[in-house]
Amino acid sequence: MGIGETTLDTHGGSPARRSVLNTLLLIMSIAWRNLGRNRRRTGLVASAVAFSILLTVFFMSLQTGSYAVMTENATGFLAGHIQIQAKGYAEEARLETTFAGVQELLKQVRELPAVLAVTARAQTYALASVGERSVGVQIMGVNSAAELVLSTLPGFVVEGSYMGLGDPAIKNAQLEGSLSLNGEPLTEQVPAYIGSVLARNLGLALGEELILLGSQKRGGIATLVLVVTGIFSTGQTEVDRALVQIPLPTFQEIFNLHDEAHMLVIKGRDISQVGLLRRELNDKFPGLYVQSWFQLLPEIEQAMALDRISGYFFYGILLVMVVLSVVNTFIMMVFERTKEFGVLLALGMRPWAIVGLLQIEALWLCLLGIALGLVLAAFVVFVLGSIGIPLGDNAELMKAFHMPDRAYPQFSLIANLISPFFMLIFIQLAAFFSSIRVLKMRPALVMR
Amino acid sequence: MDKVVRCKGICRVYADDAYPVQALDNVDFEVATGEFVSLAGPSGSGKSTLLNIIGGLDRPTSGSVYLGDVCLNQLDESELSDLRLYQMGFIFQDYNLIPVLNALENVEFTMQLQGVHPGERTERAMATLASLNLDGLAHRRPAELSGGQQQRVAIARAIVTKPKVLLADEPSANLDSKSTESLLALLRQLNQEQGVTIITATHDPLVMRYAGRRVLLVDGHIDIDDSDSIDNAH
Fold it and tell me: What's the domain range around B42?
């Protein structure tokens, strides 16, 4: 029979129903007051819970912050948050696999509220020659103004300027047609932004010419003379050795693409909403292939997943330590209060109600610790999220990769929910397995 | 007269240790409604064990216990809890008040378990405390009360639900003689005016004098039962 059900009535006179609500209110009240009976023990257990919550929430927030930096850094380099490509291009990046109507597509994508910036790119491989030296390079046609918003690559410039932009001398010369290189006016030259390793391998300096030789989309030979207007160094050898950026219209012209491109690169307003934006784009452009950065940069997602797992392992150990201390406390408490439980049984409280009493005591204790832990964690995350945590010796390295020299923990709803949730569950289990012996108690034996 | 308690062939062996202890040995015992019975005997005679078995706080190794028509042997722990809650009141040697509740809340405790409406609960609890001259101490916690006051709160808690049987285990053990006299007068009043059946385990001669029927246990047997010679039912 459960509480609230009809109970036996040997004389037929007593009210034969219990109120679940009454009993619940009673044990909640007693449980809360019981926390004050041994304040030192309550304080210690609540502090252990709070400390563990503080640590887990803080480290998860730090992880969230570092993932945000890592993601922004990785997607901001070239990939963007989302790319739209012609179907089949992701499987085999062929020059021929383009989509047409680039300007119209750009317009439509730009109109979406979730889109911060969008640009078109085309790319292929070609032979780059300077004098007797020739190497294979990746040619990328870009809109230089849009790339400044979308990509961090322009920021890696070490000589000259990005496609001549921002360099007053080149800009003015281009406008006036007064600057000449090797006898040709600069306005008729095509600016190129090349990697430092490529420049070194070809013996190229700023303002020198580079000849490209490649295949057009429709079978002809593409040739082009470029002038190096900027040299970048990203620290990634494969990029610095092979990438050459040129203006997209030039690319389209020499490779025979008519308002065609290989990809639209999109930066969303909120990277956490990238999934929604991808679905929206998928629905809007069913003939094209839309990929988010999860697909474009799987190694980043995998690295974060690996880091999360190691984090969870650490949190798990922390949780186990706290839960063990709570189990120990509860076992001690049940032993110390054995007589009291016998009295409650003798007075007519059901064994399961006493187990419930202990569960609610554990709940109060846990909630107390969680509240304290969350308040402390919010304070620490807020302060350190504002001023950052210096990375010490790693700061210079991070700077070299255009990453912040401080780590910034970032508020994470998941961090604030997941740790308290598991703490609650495991402490309830700990309390349950400690208190279950009450079910076997005989009042007379435990009240001795 | 109706028999409110019937024990048939009760044996209780404590077998926790290497050497089993026979606390009760084939005890037959009955209590009529309205009796005031004292179970007396030296330490280890089995009086508290018998009281516990009657109250459903312990189970006999063999034999049967009935409260009215209900056989306690057949009840599970939850049903025994219900039986104690609705049919019995307990007064313990150590008072055993709930330390985090004040006197009023302690008295209300069993009524709250029964689901009595809050207004009625407080009214009945206050009335009971007042009848025991404790109304001025209603909001004091047990630690703020004397031994005698705590025992009276324990009595209030035991009688407020109007139990059919009141079981008292060494109720005077921690009381001075004045408090004991006062307690016993109160128990006799409950017995005689409200018809509450009282069974008390004691080795206090004063308590025995107040009881209408005295049962002497020795080594787990009933040695003397004066029920035949004294008409103790009121």
Answer: 3-95+161-225
CB of B203 within 8 Å of a chain A CB? The answer is no
In chain B, the number of structural domains is: 1
The separation between CA A100 and the C-alpha centre of its own chain, rounded to angstroms, equals: 33
Q: Which tokens belong to A432?
A: 């349950």
Residue pLDDT, tens place only, B31-85: 999 999 999 998 889 999 999 999 999 999 999 999 999 999 999 988 999 999 9
Distance of CA B155 to the CA centre of its chain: 10
CB contact at 8 A, A174 and A210: no
**Using the beta-carbon criterion (under 8 Å), do A23 and B113 form an inter-chain contact?**
yes
Which CATH number does the domain housing residue B28 bear?
A: 3.40.50.300
Specify the DSSP element, H or E, that contains A340. Answer: helix A338-346
Q: Residue B175: inside a domain, yes or no?
A: yes
A 352-411 near B (Cβ less than 8 A): 352-353
CA gap B232, B212 in Å, rounded: 5
Q: Does A444 touch chain B (CB under 8 A)?
A: yes
Q: Which residue does chain A place closest to B105, by CA atoms?
A: A26
Interface test with A, best of B66, B113, B150, B167 (most A CBs within 10 A): B113
The per-residue pLDDT for range A334-370, each reduced to its tens digit, is 888 888 899 999 999 988 989 999 999 999 999 999 9
Assess if residue B72 is contained within a domain.
yes
- Does residue B132 fall inside a structural domain? no
ipTM of the complex: 0.89
Candidates B114, B157, B166, B196, partner chain A, best to mutate (most A CBs within 10 A)? B114
